[in-house]
Predict the structure.
Amino acid sequence: MTPLAVVCVSGGMDSCLTAAIAAGEHRLAFLHANYGQRTEAKELECFRLLAEHFRAERTLVVDFSHLRAIGGSSLTDPAVPVREGPPVPGVIPTSYVPFRNAHLLSAAASWGEALGARAIFVGAVWEDSSGYPDCRPEFYRAFEKAIHAGTRPETDLRIVTPVISLTKAEIVRQGRQLAAPFEKTWSCYQAEAEACGACESCLLRLKGFAEAGAEDPIRYRKRL
Amino acid sequence: MTPLAVVCVSGGMDSCLTAAIAAGEHRLAFLHANYGQRTEAKELECFRLLAEHFRAERTLVVDFSHLRAIGGSSLTDPAVPVREGPPVPGVIPTSYVPFRNAHLLSAAASWGEALGARAIFVGAVWEDSSGYPDCRPEFYRAFEKAIHAGTRPETDLRIVTPVISLTKAEIVRQGRQLAAPFEKTWSCYQAEAEACGACESCLLRLKGFAEAGAEDPIRYRKRL
């Protein structure tokens, strides 16, 4: 029987390509986290569209509203402004939510253990990313060891991060090869009807499409 | 300045002694998780009493209701019965919540990073415990490495498990030496006004007090 994989799907481009890769060899259980981020309504809409597109057998939306209580990020705390402009090397951006991906992996591992899944797919990007410490490859390797140490002996969950060393341009190119539905994704850190085109995340996305020589299928309020 | 520690306080004896140990050298931030367990009302009451007793500077109650959606445990799924009788060596009990302690440590690490804490105290017990895989010492060592790999470079959070190798009798004895307020704790897996005296957790607790030659200050419906 085809093995089951838990795929963490934020609703952005990176998790869209990750889902397309996982779909090649797995049945799919799609996991989405709501952590009080500004853009949750948009992200959840994209999650639902992607789950339908990839025919996920199961979906689970987990509520991490405690991350809002913990704060410390422009994504969860309205008092912290969204920074505009490109990422600054060596500077962790204001949008970093302290240790957020550990919460996501914990939910993926608990659900994966309960379902008997064999893998957790996460669309973390490190090389060409915003510099969040919980996107580093060594974090995923360390967390995989924690899963092995802290679950039943028969539980065997790998963490797979297939896009972690790709640039945004490579994500665009590989996504187009796999017919990943980028029109059903959302990247912007602002919560408007159209993507702002100015925040760090929009700039990274637009640069990726430009470098890949492709047209981004979503709409923008403005393009710098 | 005295360093700050996040202390995970369930409201049971083990976390009560852990808090008493942490209080010796730290300012305290008390963290409690509600994960839809049968006994949450009792546990939360004890958490509040312990926070007051130990003069915690901060308290945070996080809601892990997604653990109920994930299920797979008699603590979170009413369809799974609470097993009576002593633990069976080598058998993971029905009360095991898949990878639960990873969720707790993730919240402790996120909060600890936001607060600038230096340590996370957890009252996990392995030697004389129920055999949950997420109580094993190697799980805590592995998770500490994941915290170092996945947080800001300046974040320096140790995981301290001061009671992990103690028997329940040793916990009773050491708690009495430190004047730990065991009368403000709850261990029973049933949610009644008085502890049932028959579930695995009650039996472990009562055996601990008996072996320590001490009287348990809480009330029981029956004692086997």
Q: What stands out?
A: The radius of gyration of chain A is 17 Å. The domain at 4-212 of chain A is CATH 3.40.50.620 (Rossmann fold). The helical segments of chain A are 13-22, 40-53, 66-70, 100-115, 137-150, 168-177, 200-212.
